[in-house]
Amino acid sequence: MAENGLIWPLLLVVLASGLDRLLGDPKRCYHPVMAMGAAIALLRIWAEAWAGENTWRLRLAGFAITALLVGGSIAAGWGIERLAIWQPATSPLLIIGMASALAGRSLAVATGDVLAALGQQPENLPLARKQLSWLVGRDTAGLDSSEILRATAETASENAVDGLFAPLFWLLLGAVLWCAGFMGAPGPLALAWGFKASSTLDSMLGYRTGKLRWLGTAGARLDDLLVWLPCRLVALSLGQLRAALRDGKPDPSPNAGVSQAAYAHRLGIKMGGANHYEGVEIIKPLLNKNGREVQAADIVGILRLNRIIALQWLVIVTTFIIVTILVSAFVGGE
User: SS3 letters for 216-275?
Assistant: First the structure.
């Protein structure tokens, strides 16, 4: 492994993580997810026109959309990787692309905006609801401060996996493949953009209503699959894997309940309960039902844990690669 002593792919991931923490997603910059979203919107128009009300055609079209978008995103990332390998001066483009797959700072800023508005209640309670509406799919009108805090904690813990740790996992996996000498394989950017494509598909088409019940199936199932292992690694990193799997099992999502339960048990807070979506009440499973109500400090705690775990992952993988290189060099020198 890493017979040429290559460790620079991991250094690129570290730099990309730092860039995400420093800048996040600048508002005036065109983001790759915007291109993915535009492609999905166009493909959806074509798919629904072709499939009509035929459920099998809708499923087939959904599979085609998923294959095109995920495959195209991987190919785009692979192309930038090839460019960076052939022309090292273009490496900053690769780092920027990798940073675009991470949403650590964006999540921190968005949740911070909700907390800042709540800190000025009751005058700014409507502003807190508005800020929250950018983060969650549930109805936010009429939520009191305690419900806003619970909703913020739930989305912060779920999006920590979807927006930070899952793409970081695929970045690290791609970097490890390169360090192992598989330089021709899709690397960190290709794998991370492939994941972001599936995540974008799930967020735009992964609903169990109307035609999307069939059109969005492929994208939603792929996203569940790609998040499955990173989600459980996060729960393991928090020291709450068993409790998270137990409490998260009743949730319809194979990952959302697990990620939320892991943070709930780590912080000693209670999540879940009644939510409203377009006026319809949905009862979510209670997570750590004996925990206390969410406080603003707990949301700050979630963000702090995110930073700690991300650093731990980077350190663990980098240490593993360095040790492997040293062992290989020692064994090879005998």
Answer: CHHHHHHHHHHHHHHHHHHHHHCCCHHHHHHHHCCCCCCCHHHHHHHHHHHHCECEEEEE
Among 177, 227, 196, residue whose Cα is nearest residue 70:
196
Residues 6+ apart with CB under 8 A from 18: none
Is 71 strand, coil or helix? helix
Q: Per residue in 33-64, pLDDT tens? A: 999 999 999 999 999 999 999 999 999 999 99
E strands present in the chain: 271-277, 280-287
Structure tokens given for 91? 């490496």
Radius of gyration in angstroms for the set of CA atoms belonging to the chain, rounded to a whole number: 21
- Tell me if the pTM is above 0.85: yes
Mean pLDDT of 258-271: 98
| Residues in the chain, overall count | 334
Average pLDDT score, the chain: 92
Ramachandran category for residue 24: left, alpha or beta (phi over 0 → left; psi -120 to 50 → alpha): left
User: Quick one: 285 exposed, middle or buried, by C-beta within 10 A (0-12, 13-18, 19+)?
Assistant: middle
Helix (H, G, I), strand (E, B), or coil: what is residue 96? helix
CB 156 within 8 Å of CB 262: no
pLDDT for the residue 4: 43
The rounded distance, in Å, linking the Cα atoms of 277 and 139 is: 5
β-pair type (271-277, 280-287): antiparallel
Scored b (16 or more CB within 10 A) or e, 227-262 reads beebbbbbbebbebbebbeebbeebebebbbbbbbb
* CA–CA separation, 326 and 3 (whole Å): 10
Separation between Cα atoms, residue 197 and residue 77, nearest integer Å: 11
Whether residue 12 has pLDDT greater than 90 = yes
Q: Are the C-beta atoms of 220 and 206 separated by less than 8 Å?
A: yes
